[in-house]
Amino acid sequence: MKRNNIILLVEDNADDVELTLRAFRSSKVLNEIVVVSDGVEALDYLFATGSHAGRDRKLLPEVVLLDLKLPKIGGLEVLKRMRADERTRRIPVVVLTSSNEERDILSSYDLGANSFVRKPVDFAQFADAARQLGMYWLVTNQPAGM
Amino acid sequence: MTRTVLIVDDSLTVRMDLAEAFEAAGFRPLLCASIREARDALAAAPTIDLVILDVLLPDGDGVQLLEEIRTATATRDLPILMLSNEADVKNRIRGLKMGADDYVGKPYDAGYVVARARELLRQRLPEEESILAEKVTILVIDDSITSREELKTALERSGYDVITAASGEQGLRLASAHRPAALIVDGVMPGMDGAGVIRRLRLDAALRGLPCLLLTASEEQGAELTALDAGADAFVRKEEDMDVILARFAAMLRTAGTAPGAASSLSSPKRILAVDDSMTYLQALASALRDEGYDVVLAHSGEEAIEMLAVQNVDCILMDLLMPGIGGQETCRRIKASPTLRNTPLIMLTAVENRQALIEGLGTGADDYVAKSNEFDVLRARIQAQMRRKQFEDENRRIRDQLLHSELEAAEARAARELAEAKAALVEELKYKNRELEAFSYSVSHDLRAPLRSIDGFSQALIEDWGDRLDENARNYLHRIRAAAQRMAALIDDMLLLSRISRAEVNRERVDLTSLAKVVAEELKQQNPERVVAVQIERGLIVNADPGLLRVLLDNLLGNAWKFTARTADARVELRTQTQGEDTVFVVNDNGAGFDMEHAGVLFQPFQRLHDAADFPGTGIGLATVQRVVDHHGGRIWAEGKPGAGATVFFTIPHSRGARQ
C-alpha cells in the first residue's frame, strides 16, 4: 500500500471547492488535490472502481477532506465504509461541514474521523483552518504504516 | 383448616351439646363456664375464630365481656354470636347494640347455631378464599341408609367430601348451610321427593346453579321426564352400577362449571320477627316456625319491635294487628316509612276476619294479611311466598345494579381509552413536529450558510486578488458585503441556538457558577485583548442546573455586559448574588450604555434591539435565549437599567424544581 501526496477533497458545492483550493494555495499547501463531488465517486476513487476503475489502486490519498452533506452516498456512510475496509482504514479523514450540530460531530468521531472542521462563513477563518489542516496532516502527522 | 370456636355458657348441657355439634361440623370447640375463664381463654388462644356467648353468666354479664372483646384491638373483629333466652328481648337488643354479629334465642337448635356460625365465618372471608378453602363437597339425599352410605363411600373414594341427608327438607337446609358443589338426590322419598327438592332449589337464587343428579327408579314410567321437568342436570337409574353413577356424576360436574352463588340463600336460616302481645301465641308461633328451620325473634309490642329492628335485620315480620301501645297499624306504617326496612315483607296477623282491618292494614303498607289460628300451614305458605317475592326483588335489584355498574365501568374504560388515545396522538404529533423542526434547523444550518460562505469567500478573493485595481468605494462595498454575510451567519447561528435551547432537556447537576463565569470572562478578554474591563465575580456560587445551558446564559449575559461597556471609561462588569425573601437572586451588573426602562418589556423578546447596530452590534436574540434557559430551570428573569448608567439583569435558578420538557 502506497501513499502519495494526494489530498482527496469530497465536496459537491463548486463554490466551496473553489474556496478550499484557494485557501490551500494561499497556505502554500502544494499537494495534488483530487476533487470528487459525491459519495459514490469518493468510494470509486478510493477503491479504484466504477468511474475510477483504471486507477492504480495502490495510490491512496494522504488525507481525505470529507463533506457530510453529499449526493447519493452521504459523508458519514463514506467514512463508515472507509473504516470497514483494510485498505482505507488508516487514511486520516477530516470532516468538513457547514453545521456545528453536535450529533454530526459525535457521529463523525464515533465512525473514526480524525478531525472535525466547521466551515466558517468568514473566509479568513476558513483559510486559517485550511492552513492548520495542511500543517497538521501533511507535515506534522506521520501517516500510519510509513 | 380447622376453626376454633370459643363457647361461653354456664350450663354444662349447653356446652356439651354445642361442642358435639361443632366438632361434628369440623370445628375445634373451646369450652368456658364463666367470664373469667373466657377472658383467660381469649388471652391464651389468639387464634379463636368465633365466640358463642351466653348473656347470663355466674360471674357477670355476657354483654360486658362482649364490650371488652369489641374494644380490644386484637379481638375487635372477632365474630360473636350471642346465645340467650328467647323471651328476653332486652338482652338481645343490648347485645346487638354492643356489636354482637348475631343472636340466637334459647331454646336453640344446635344445627342451626352451627349454620349461623358458618354463615358468619363465610361473610368474613373474601369470596375467592371461601371457595378455595373448601373441598368439593357433595350432598347426598336419600331416605335409605344403605344406599346413602354406599354412595358416600364410593364418592369419598373418588376424593369428594360427602354430607348426607335423610329427607328432602333436611337436604335443602344442608344445601344452604354448606353450599355443596353438587347434589345427588333420590327420586323416590317420603314427604318431599327428589323432583320436589330440585324444583325448590331452582327457585332459590343462591342455589339454582347447583348441579343436581337425580336417581330414578326403573319401574316408574316417565321418571326421566319428571326429572328433567324439575330441572335436574342429569339422571341415572338407581339400579345402575355404582361406576356408571360416578361417571355420569363426574361428567355432570365437568359440564356444570359450578360456583357457589354470592346471593344469600332462600333456604339459609331466615329470621322472622314475630310481634304479638300474647306470650302464649308467640311461643306457639315461634315453636312452629323453628321446626321449619326459621330463627324467630320475639317482640311483645310495636315499640319493642321497632327498637329491635334498629339493631337486627330480619327477613320477615309477623305483626299482630291489635296490641297495646302504638298497635300493629302504626308500627307497620313506621316500618314501611323507613328506607332500610320498607323492603322487608310484613305480614299482618289478626284474630278475626275483619274486612275493614284488612283494608287498613294493607293500606299502611303490609304485604299480606293472615287470620290467626293455631294451624300454621297457611301462615308458613304465606311467609314462604313473601320471602320468595323479596328474594326475587333483591335479585332484580342486584342484577340492575350489576348492569349499571358494568355499564359505568365500560363507560369509564372507554373514556380512559379515548383519553389515552388522544394523549398518544398529541405526543406523536409533538414528536413529529419536533423531528420536523430538527430537520428544518439542520437544513438551515447547512444550506443557508453555504451561499453566505460563497458571498464572503469570493468577496474576500476579490479584495485579495484585485484589491489594488479597485477604488476605495468598490473596496468599501466589498467590505460591506462581507460584513452583511457574516452578520447573517451570526443571525442564523443565534436563531438555531434559540430554537435548540427551546427544545433542550434540562439535565441538572452541581455547577460551579463562579468558575464557569471566570472561563467566560477569560474568553472575552482573549477576544478583545485591547479592552480593560474590571470583572468581579462572587466566589463560591454553586447551582443545581444544566451546565451547557448555564454556559449559554453566561456567554450572553457577560457578553452583553462586556459589549455595552465598550464606550465606558473605567468599564466594570459584576456577577453577584443577593437574597430576596427565600430566593437567591443572581445579578449581572455593568456600568455601560444601559437602557430606558420604558423598553424593558421587549428586552427579552427575540429580534428586539434597544441600540443602534452601528454602536453595539448584535442579533437581538441573546436575551431571548437567556430567558428560555432561566425558564427551563423554573426561574424568573428581569432587568433594570438607565440610559448611560448601566444595566442590571436579575435571575433565579430554583434549586430543584422539575424542569419543563
Description:
Chain A has one domain (2-139): Response regulator (Rossmann fold, 3-Layer(aba) Sandwich), CATH 3.40.50. By secondary structure, chain A is of the alpha/beta class. Helices cover 40% and strands 18% of the residues of chain A. In chain A, the strands form 2 sheets. Chain A has a 5-stranded parallel β-sheet with strand order 3-2-5-6-7, with helices on both faces. In chain A, strands 1-4 form a two-stranded parallel sheet. The relative contact order of chain A is 0.19. Chain A is built from 5 helices and 7 strands. Chain A has helices at residues 14-26, 39-47, 75-84, 102-110, 123-140, and strands at 2-3, 7-10, 33-36, 59-60, 63-67, 93-97, 115-118. In chain A, helix 1 links the parallel strand 2 (7-10) and strand 3 (33-36). Chain B has 661 residues and is α/β, with parallel strands linked by helices. Chain B has 5 domains: 1-124, Response regulator (Rossmann fold, 3-Layer(aba) Sandwich), CATH 3.40.50.2300; 127-256, Response regulator (Rossmann fold, 3-Layer(aba) Sandwich), CATH 3.40.50; 270-374, 3-Layer(aba) Sandwich (Rossmann fold); 379-503; 505-651, Histidine kinase-like ATPase, C-terminal domain (Heat Shock Protein 90). Chain B is 50% helix and 18% strand. Chain B is built from 20 helices and 24 strands. In chain B, the strands form 6 sheets. Chain B has a 5-stranded parallel β-sheet with strand order 2-1-3-6-7, sandwiched between helices. In chain B, strands 9-8-10-11-12 form a 5-stranded parallel β-sheet, sandwiched between helices. In chain B, helix 4 (89-98) runs parallel beside helix 13 (302-311) and helix 18 (513-527) packs across helix 19. In chain B, 36% of the residues are buried. The interface between A and B is medium-sized, with 20 and 21 residues.
